[in-house]
Amino acid sequence: ERLSLWGGRFADGPDDALAQLSKSTDFDWRLAAYDLAGSRAHARVLHRAGLLDDAELSGMIAALDTLEEKVRAGEFLPLLSDEDVHSALERGLLEIAGPDLGGKLRAGRSRNDQIATMGRMYLRDHARVISGLVLDVVEALVSQAEAHREVPMPGRTHLQHAQPVLLAHHLLAHAWPLMRDVARFVDFDRRADVSAYGSGALAGSSLGLDPQAVARELGFSDSVENSIDGTASRDVFAEYAFVTAMIGVDLSRLSEEIILWATKEFSFVTLDDRFSTGSSIMPQKKNPDVAELTRGKAGRLVGDLTGLLTTLKGMPLAYNRDLQEDKEPVFDATDTLTLLLPAFTGMVATLVFNTEKMAHLAPRGFALATDLAEWLVREGVPFRVAHELSGAAVKLAESRDVELWDLSDEDYAGISEHFTPAVREVLTTEGSIDSRNAKGGTARAAVAQQLENARAELTRL
Ligand code: ARG
Questions:
Q1: How many alpha carbons fall within 13 Å on the CB side of residue 132?
Q2: What 3-state DSSP class applies to 161?
Q3: Separation in Å, CA 216 to CA 194, 219, 227, 366
Q4: How far is the CA of 430 from the centre of ligand 1 (A)?
């Protein structure tokens, strides 16, 4: 005989096929500790409303504590016949406290306000865990940047050589978006910091319970303004899924670069043996699997977000069972990042950069052509003309298969009288890099300041 949360108006229990479909304990059991915390808080407001006497309250709390110990020890587990974490725990409470006392706890609450609250508790906790792991990646990036303060590399647009930049500048360009993701989680928490307890099934509770007292006991600043919104909205879940997807996408962009940098053609980095894999057939292979798995799992994180948003789209108020689908995407996103981030941090922290090759290639492919044009501008030549003249120098150098600095003073004078021998001062990597010295630029002094600011932001987060 199935133990059910309903039955009064039913002549028969659910068919096995429905029970299988309906069951969510395979994934929502991880919310058990949150549900028990909610139950304790709920018992206290029932007591304060006069619906449990002193003895009943202490009996109820003791039973919930015992149940929690059994859950933690793995002695109490959901049965196939338990529909969800709430039903399983109610069965456990009835077993320990007896049906008379245990049966009082369900007054004034619904699984709808329970799950909406438990979900928020889970998300708030795990946003903090993931933020910590993301900051480890940032720490690795900032440390690598500090260790390579003066190393130039080719800066690219369209994957073509564009202008020389410092490796530290490039690495920090990956650190800032990740710090913004952590800031997004901080901001997310302001909206997740609201308990839905007391909303009941959708309309609120008639039993004189105090939703704000429950909220405070569960670590929330307040309870929801609207019971329908409290039970039916999942935008906070979607926001969490967005931040996790964004983290995945941000990591995937660095991953793609590391994969390229590790090729024979680039040879910009060597991966540490502990963070690369070999081939079962090709003895020479050393593969960037951490970066590839990251790139792959970014797709999965985007899928989690997309699935959740699609579930929510067009759903009428208030609670609908579709909402049970809110959990697996955010759990999967959490598990994915919890697994991924430590390996990613290890890979970044142990990257060895081929700084000579990077520096050698930094000014090549005519990456100093903009410096040439801007030098002319400082000589009073309009930029339109300067762009043309610098382009002519590139054309001449390209036709001879040489670089801009290989052209002679006569070559330059032949292109334009504005090109005096003094132009050579900008035809070096260091000159080019250090000239971009305004805030946000790649000059050594600007990057030193940026590193300081990144460190400060890292401490603040
Ligand atoms: N297990 C459900 C969920 O995850 C909560 C229970 C609400 N069920 C219901 N029939 N009202 O959303």
A1: 6
A2: strand
A3: 9, 5, 17, 63
A4: 63
- pLDDT (0 to 100) of residue 93: 98
Go through the domains of the chain in sequence order and give each one's CATH number. Answer: 16-107 (1.10.275.10), 112-149+162-209+219-355 (1.20.200.10), 363-460 (1.10.40.30)
Please check whether residue 289 is in contact with residue 328, taking contact to mean a CB–CB distance below 8 angstroms: no
Please indicate whether residue 407, judged by its CB atom, sits closer than 6 Å to ligand 1: no
- Residue 386 scores a pLDDT above 90: yes
Task: Return the residue whose CA atom lies nearest to atom 10 of ligand 1.
Answer: 321
Ligand 1 contact via 111 beta carbon (within 6 Å): yes
Confidence (pLDDT) at 425: 87
The backbone torsions φ and ψ at residue 445, rounded to the nearest 5 degrees and listed phi first, read -65, -40
Ligand 1 atom 6: the closest Cα is on which residue? 111
pLDDT at 112 over 70: yes
Known catalytic membership, residue 174: no
Ligand 1 centre from 112 Cα, in Å? 6
Catalytic residue among 47, 86, 158, 170: 158
pLDDT confidence of 1, banded at 50, 70, 90?
very low
Which entry of 22, 58, 221, 279 is annotated as an active-site residue?
A: 279
User: Quick check: 4 pLDDT over 80?
Assistant: no
User: How many Å apart are CA 234 and CA 254, to the nearest integer?
Assistant: 31
Average pLDDT over residues 285-302: 96
Contact criterion met (CB below 8 Å) for 24 and 324? yes
- End-to-end CA separation in angstroms for the chain: 53
